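Reproducibility note. Readers wishing to regenerate the assembly model reported in the main text can use the exact inputs given here. Chain order matters: entities are listed in the order in which they were concatenated for prediction.
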Amino acid sequence: METALTDSLETTATISVRDLRVNYGEREILHGISFDVNRGETLVILGGSGSGKSTLLRTLVGLEKPSSGQIWIKGQDIAAIPPSEMDAIRKRIGMSFQGGALFGSMTVGENVALPLREHTRLEESTIEIMLRLKLEQVGLQGFEYYMPSQLSGGMKKRAAVARALAMDPEILFFDEPSAGLDPIIAAGIDQLILELKQAFRMTIIVVTHELASAYLIADRMVLIDKGNIVAIGTTEEMRASTQPRVRQFLDRVAEPEVSRELDYLQMLTEDRRSK
Amino acid sequence: MELLSQVGGSVINGLAYVGSLVSLGGRAAYYTFVAPFQGKPIRFQRAVSQALDVGVRALPILSLITFFIGLILALQAAYELRRFGAMSYVATAVAVSMSRELGPLITAIVVIGRSGSAFAAEIGTMKVTEEIDALETMAISPVHFLVTPKFIAMAAMLPCLTIWANAMGILGGSLFGVAKADFTFIRYIWASLDSLFLRDIVTGLIKSVMFGITITAVGCLEGLSTGAGAEQVGRSTTRAVVMSIFLVIVVDLVFTALFFFMSQG
Amino acid sequence: MQISARHTDNTTIFDVTGDIDLANSPEVRKALLREVREKRTPRVVMNLSKVRYIDSSGVASLVEGLKASRDVNSRFILFGLSPSAREVLQLSRLLKIFEVYDNEDQALSS
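Running the prediction on these inputs yields the following structure tokens for the assembly.
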């Protein structure tokens, strides 16, 4: 049964998440999430702040440990494998962090070359050509010797993408690619993601709360709210959805008021210290 | 009863903290002594640049402080020695107390202020800006990449700084010796060297290596356990300084006691 | 990946089979640079018709080969690019920089 499941997963999906639960201390953030990411598709994970979407992303790249459930990446359950095998998977994935997470003490070029210098035995001359190719691909040619602090927000994100691309990953993760950027720069980053998608046929997973950007780049979307999947489907399916929670998020309706007065009274007057 | 459980809780927390320090130190030791033979070379370049920062750039302030300390020691010793007409022992008093105790300790405290706090701030900032996470997702161990070079730099530089501090202390003492205790400069230095046993210097240096390891472990651990938000970096830095000073004194006590009982047996 | 060489007068043809990736691109680079720099072969031809995939380290190694051949005024020619390899070069705006032909006859008669 177990093997049959993994076999079927391997053939269709690059990533398969099964009944994933994640806790921070006592509090459960994700309440049993399951979905697949197909090879070569761009999946956008949508959700408001506090929905658990960032936790989901961090768990997918192994920064958080699930409390139960399975995450199959390229046929291996990363919730159950030893660190050495996790490192092998990490060399095949790239991650672009919200603020870029470039190393401030290194130049842009050194940032991009870092994974290559750490993990490969390539000659320095080869690495230099590679890092310039990567910077060219993200539109940062000529910025090799700049320090991250000299770059604007959008350029930092581009440099971070170049670093994520350094090892030619099969799967690329983006955490809030447009957060903190003005609309025009953000559109530029969306364009970059589209280009990468077309060019390298990578599997791309993007976490965002920006609807416009999601509609533009997604093949499929997952809508997450309060640690549960509300809906999953292609962009068209989501657009056409009549589910109230989906409509509410997609039509940007404000959170409904606390409906039952009794709960509200309870919430206001509850004596938490007595516990 | 409540007090008892609170004390118990603090003791358990304290032990857990020391446990995390030892575990961090152990992982750094693995990357220093074992991993290089498994094809994961030490980041020598990073260790050297850390060593420059920890060591060479601390020299001016350390020199000044230990020079003054030596002078103060000479003055304090002279107070008592003057009454017995034993002013010629000023050199001995300064040299012995510097090399056994104050040299290593003052060096450690200067290094805590300069580098222990900087380690916590640097790593804490990297934690807040997700740079530590980025290292992890690139399959680069933060302990290997960031922490281990700091341990190597500290363990190597603290003994060197301590020797320098001892010398500057003796120099400070000589100022008083020459001015007020009828020494010539050469005679003062000879009297100092004569009074020192190799044992005094070596025990001081062993302590200083332990201090260096302690300071690095605390600074890096506080940095790595920084929570979200910039204000947490400040908190980590403060904690790193306070905990380092406390633990350096504890380590000092343990090793001084150890040396005392070893010399008896 | 396997790489083998055929020598004719003034020309060396490298036949590469398999993927060129991080693990083996240093081997390609070494073979190329030895041929261009040390042996000073006037024309070096890469047969890539049996290469399915080239990653960026492979591309970078080819760029190094091209640069070395320009330095000594020899020729460096690629042929038999798979659609994906062609696309990789196109993306890096390298397709026009390399001398690229469809097949061996064209490459040799050029």
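We highlight two features of this model. Chain B touches chain A through 13 residues (CB under 8 Å). Chain B has a mean pLDDT of 93.
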